[in-house]
Amino acid sequence: MNSPSALETAPAATAAGNPVAGIDQSRGDFKYDVTYEFDAGTGLNDKTVDYISGVKKEAAWIREFRQNALKVFQSKPMPTSWATRDLDNINFDKIRYYLASGQKPKRTWDEVPDDIKKTFERLGIPEQERKYLAGVEAQFDSEAAYSNIKDIVAKQGVIFVNSTEGLREHPELFKKWFGKVIPTGDNKFSALNSAVFSGGSFIYVPKGVKVAQPLQAYFRINAENFGQFERTLIIADEGAEVTYMEGCTAPKFSTSTLHSAVVELVALKGAKIQYITVQNWANNVFNLVTKRGLAHEEAEIKWIDCNIGSRLTMKYPGVILKGRKARGEVISIALANDGQHQDTGAKMIHAADETTSNIVAKSISVGQGRSTYRGVVHIPKRLKGCKNNTECDALLINTNSRTDTYPAITVRGDRNYVQHEASVSKVNEDMIFYMQQRGLTEGQAMSLAVNGFVNDLARQFPMEYSVELKRLIDLEMEGSVG
Amino acid sequence: MSTLVIKDLHASIGEKEIVKGLSLTIKSGEVHAIMGPNGTGKSTLAKVVSGHPDYTVTGGDVLLDGVSILTQEADERARAGLFLAFQYPSEIPGVSIANFLRAAVQARMAEGEEIDATAYYKRLYAKMDMLKIDRKFTSRSVNEGFSGGEKKRCEILQMAMLEPKFALMDETDSGLDIDALRIVSEGVNTLRGPNLGVLMITHYQRLLNYIVPDFVHVMWDGRIVKSGDKSLALELEAKGYDWVKKELAAATA
């Protein structure tokens, strides 16, 4: 284990080297004091796991599942053989694993306790819900404070609850798919999540139901030295369609925070799932997330993943293309500002004929920021008619930035088609001068250059989210001018 | 009525002095041409006046309506009414001309004031009609994959939209064939008027057949060594720059 001080001292150094520290960069950087009814304490052992399971009044099988996962987590080494050594700065003994004010989310905002409600109001969640969402779940630290689905959607048989309720009220459906797309032992952090998970969404869309408006979850970390471990499971039955969007923020603490989610998607025959993430973590959050979908015959899974903020993000959304003609897509945008490392990418596992996958990854590195792309595309020899297209583009803003690309494309046999393109470009001084000469400040010029770089991707997003992305980029870039 | 006064300006890049005591006054409504062989500091002058960070001003002053602009950043000078039409305009991938200009117009508005999108497009389209530019043009990314002529038309359109007090036009004719040259010149002539002062920087006399200047200056070794009216340009065309060089040598001997 690390020295107990590691978690406190390392982020301070990061903050000192970061010219944006102290500037309110986002709507997310604020905090209200909240009293927690449930607290698993600090540190992790089998008692922590029992506490969480007990509070949730879980069935025996899930308690066992958690305890087993804890053992797997403890036995697995940190993946520092291939990933950054910064992972060693996470001090698992200093983290609080479960904090909740109540066990059951409210169905109306009026019932949500004031101290929690004002956070979500400040983030604009109730307003967005009224405007364009089919349902909202708002998670505050470990549990959902609010969860509601519009009547018209619920009447179609769509289930949209948090994972605690999903387990309690729909155990058969839940158990059938839970942990099947991402097994406990997939990696150290999927094991950690499996041991202490709480919150996240459980969604089931019945056969043929197309949910017209997006369902949205908002994950808010409020407490210091806290770990958020939501677990999301989305099942789209045959021919069903659903779009799910998630947003995440946390206030800026002087110590590090851990966010380690597991998201599993199951698209049955001909179903379509679109999963959109726009996250803007404070720059001391370790964001280590495992996301994977299973696409059956002619199903389509699309991940749109925008990673802004955090100290370290490691996330490689994937699709297992299990059925014939299944399609998988990952659109990834990562912005690494000073003191941040975005280690992102995609995995496409082709496991049936005529499956197609598309990966478009764009990364922006600013100042000392570092971007890494890791991609896996696997097409075994026995398959035919599979296609993959991979594009990774990196944009560097100033010479200190670093970008690495690790594409691993294994294609066996000669009956499949793969295409890979990569580019690195720079925002140079002449380009900035050109824009400044038209009256834009240096920050506005950089922001426009970055927005231009991601524009072809952002245009594919739902309007509200492309506006949000642009706003976050503007805030990041304007804050990054020294 | 505005004035741009360049007073005994000295400027260097690194240790090398390029502009060596240049003075020039331009008033609204006037079109000045600076001519001279390559390497005499013409383009440097335009960059220094507009605030390019690579150059250091080591002496003299530049005043816009009596206010020194040398301590201002490039964007402040731009918002104060200075426009540089670039010899080599930068590409901005993914940013449409319409959005770029919109950001530039927005940057000129007071804090908290939002641009009126409808009014903006109305004005943009009016300027495009005036300059005979196709509507589709502004949905393309700024300068990306543009021909030489398209880049220069894009500069003229920006100038039309931003309505500067003074425009510095750096080698606007370079890289243009005769048709493109005519089109771009027509654009500049359309924008000419009592509210705009123009400084044209050119190596060749041919541009001045299309945009007829009120004053012609010859730049040599970082200074203006000769000034006159448009007939000076024709004289240079006939006699070449060596003539100025000899005259200069005779004068300093």
Radius of gyration of chain A: 21 Å
The separation of the N and C termini of chain B measures 41 Å
Beta content of chain B: 25-35%
Strand order of the largest sheet of chain B: 6-9-10-3-11-12
CATH class of chain B: Alpha Beta
Give the amount of beta strand of chain A, in percent: 35-45%
Query: Can you tell me the overall shape of chain B?
Result: globular
The SSE order of chain B reads: EEEHEEHEEHHEHEHEHEEHH
Helix content of chain A: 25-40%
**Quick check: average pLDDT of chain A?**
87
Describe the structure in your own words:
The complex is a heterodimer of chains A (482) and B (253). Chain A has 482 residues and is of the alpha/beta class. Chain A has one domain (6-479). Chain A is 26% helix and 35% strand. In chain A, strands 5, 6, 8, 9, 11, 12, 14, 16, 17, 19, 21 and 23 form a 12-stranded mixed β-sheet that branches. A 10-stranded mixed β-sheet of chain A has the order 4-3-7-10-13-15-18-20-22-24. Chain A has a two-stranded antiparallel ribbon with strand order 1-2. In chain A, helix 2 (46-55) runs antiparallel to helix 3, helix 7 packs across helix 8 and helix 11 packs antiparallel against helix 12. The two termini of chain A are 37 Å apart. Chain B has a single domain, classed as 3-Layer(aba) Sandwich (Rossmann fold). In chain B, strands 6-9-10-3-11-12 form a 6-stranded mixed β-sheet, sandwiched between helices. The A-B interface holds A 425, 429-431, 433-442, 444-445, 448-449, 451-456 and B 50-54, 73-75, 78-79, 83-84, 86, 89-95, 100-101, 103-104, 107-108, 141, 158, 162.
